[in-house]
Amino acid sequence: MKKIYNINNKGYYGEFGGAFIPEMLYPNVEELRQNYLKIMEEPSFQEEFSQLLKDYVGRPSPLYFAKRLSKKYNTKVYLKREDLNHTGAHKVNNTIGQILMAKRLGKNRIIAETGAGQHGVATATVCALMGIECIVYMGKIDIARQAPNVARMKMLGAEVRPALSGSRTLKDATNEAIRDWINNPVDTHYIIGSAIGPHPYPDMVTKFQSVISEEIKWQLKEKEGKENPDYVVACIGGGSNAAGTYYHFLDNEDVGIIAVEAAGKGIHSGESAATSALGKEGIIHGCKTLLMQTKDGQITEPYSISAGLDYPGVGPLHSHLYKSGRGEFYSATDDEAMTAGLELAQLEGIIPAIETSHALAIFEHRKFQSDDIVVISLSGRGDKDLQNYIDYFKL
Amino acid sequence: MNRINQKLKEDKKLLSIYFTAGYPSINDTVSIIQNLEKSGVDMIEIGLPFSDPLADGPTIQASSTAALKNGMTSKLLFKQLKDIRQTVSIPLIIMGYFNPMLQYGVEAFCKKCQEVGIDGLIIPDLPVDVYHSEYKKTFEKYGLINVFLITPQTSDERIRYIDSVSDGFIYMVSSASTTGAKVGFGNTQTKYFERIANMNLKNPQIVGFGISNNKTLTQATKYAKGAIIGSAFVKHLTKKGKSSIQEFINTILKS
């Protein structure tokens, strides 16, 4: 029997997914579940979405043949340049989609969570664009270490609310956003930034991000005369850029799917975010997936030098790709990622986000054939990480 | 008959109290339960702390974080409750999030509940349809009642469905909020209480969220079988410790 990697009609990827939410959230999530596909299929929605992706975000993003990188690793490397999008990363593909969704659902208040601030900025941006009130929850600790993004969100007119509970990072910002939604069930839409959360979020976010793989197909056809690469590679925190990069290749097993997680200071160092290696099936933020937790089922705090990969779970699609063997999962340490980031800067003149540097570190872990076509999702640019690079390399 | 159903048959309004196990101190669980029963409380919800309690406001979050820091675990809670039925006879319910139970093993968790004399569970993030299709048989095998929540936003149709799946009582969340977020009841609540009362559900309702004193208790129990107090009691424990539980309950009941 042919294996199914996409979501089923019950909201599960294999055994992962679902909606494990308190009854207080049921009406909000159910309203979305009943309407999201219908709305996404409306011609007027599709037209507005494509128009904004083109004129506002700057899509299609280029598929760039990285000549010197290819030469160094003796294979054919293409970079999908999501770093060239407005706001500097893939995140905006999803926030554009969700703000249009929110408008059609009649919502006039937007909430979001953010870790490093990239999703917060992308959300604040589209709220400014549409003139809708925006509240971004951000861990108190992250607010302190991501000051430029906090300033960006404020400049865009968003209110940044510190998450003061628990460990005061991304996971707690997500909890606070969910609590806000419980307290404001009628007028508010919650724009989740990754392919996580209760069904239909993972599927909706994946579909908005799937523009990445849709473009890869026709761009590769133009350049190589064939639609399918041999491998697609992406970094994974919650996994939205990866989900978008894999989406149109999920059912074509000739295309290898490669995921790179953040190993932090080493998988078994106690300071890591390599969920597939360290996680166990459980429930986080309303979905059944692999997550890092204690034996007693308490969710643990991850670590990575990259704030965007610093999440204790992965989206349910990725848990399914891991468990079914469809995806190859690797993890890169802080050091490997930083080195790969510097290498890209000096070989190709592109400074990547540290999240993306993890995907680039794949060459430390895996060899490719010289005629393999390897497409790497260059999910974000490194401007926001300059201070980290400065500190690390003593620039 | 399950102690919860027995209690619900009594011809009186019921007061149920929530507290977080392992808070303020790790070994307070048993003495808090004993004191609550002595103070005249009808039912107790023992909170199993969780690292990420989505449905809870700051008070219960803080007590959960403190309890986990104190070392509370599912295993330890069951150990503390081992002999509880030798001294306590009112219904005891464990309220907790699903992940710790999933990791313990749902069947093992239910079995242990039965062994120590727990009568029911409240699991806010275990949806009614998943319970119905995957876990109902297991809960029933171990004589446990699983209590479901409804809110002012829950549709009549869904309330009927929840009523049909429920045994014992329905936990009626008073307003669209996390625990401890809103104090007092307004017109919206009264209308909601009346709406539910007029539905003539098969299960009695107990109101929770927003009850912190005699006034709100009276308002809530005008329409419902009983009321649950959580955050206000946890706040009291934080301020006054467990020695003045009787005093707190007296104020609530005005006796």
Structure report:
The complex is a heterodimer of chains A (395) and B (255). Chain A is of the alpha/beta class. Chain A has a six-stranded mixed β-sheet, sandwiched between helices. In chain A, strands 7-6-5-8 form a four-stranded parallel β-sheet, with helices on both faces. The longest helix of chain A has 16 residues, at 26-41. In chain A, 43% of the residues lie in helices and 18% in strands. Chain A has helices at residues 26-41, 43-57, 67-73, 91-104, 118-130, 140-145, 147-155, 170-183, 201-209, 211-224, 240-246, 275-278, 316-324, 334-348, 354-360, 362-365, 386-393, and strands at 12-13, 16-17, 63-65, 76-81, 109-114, 133-139, 159-163, 188-191, 231-235, 256-264, 280-284, 287-291, 327-333, 373-378. In chain A, helix 4 (91-104) crosses helix 9 (201-209), helix 10 crosses helix 11 and helix 14 (334-348) crosses helix 15 (354-360). Chain A starts with 11 loop residues before the first strand and ends with a helix. Chain B has one domain: TIM Barrel (Alpha-Beta Barrel), CATH 3.20.20. Chain B contains twelve helices and nine strands. Chain B has 255 residues and is α/β, with parallel strands linked by helices. Chain B has helices spanning 3-9, 29-38, 58-70, 74-80, 98-104, 106-116, 128-141, 156-165, 187-197, 214-223, 231-240, 245-253; strands at residues 14-20, 43-48, 92-96, 120-122, 145-147, 149-150, 170-173, 205-208, 226-229. Chain B is globular, with a radius of gyration of 17 Å. Chain B has a nine-stranded parallel β-sheet with strand order 5-4-3-2-1-9-8-7-6. The interface between A and B is large, with 35 and 42 residues.
Provide a short characterization of the protein structure.
Helices cover 43% and strands 18% of the residues of chain A. Chain A has 395 residues and is α/β, with parallel strands linked by helices. The longest helix of chain A is centred in the first third of the chain and has 16 residues.
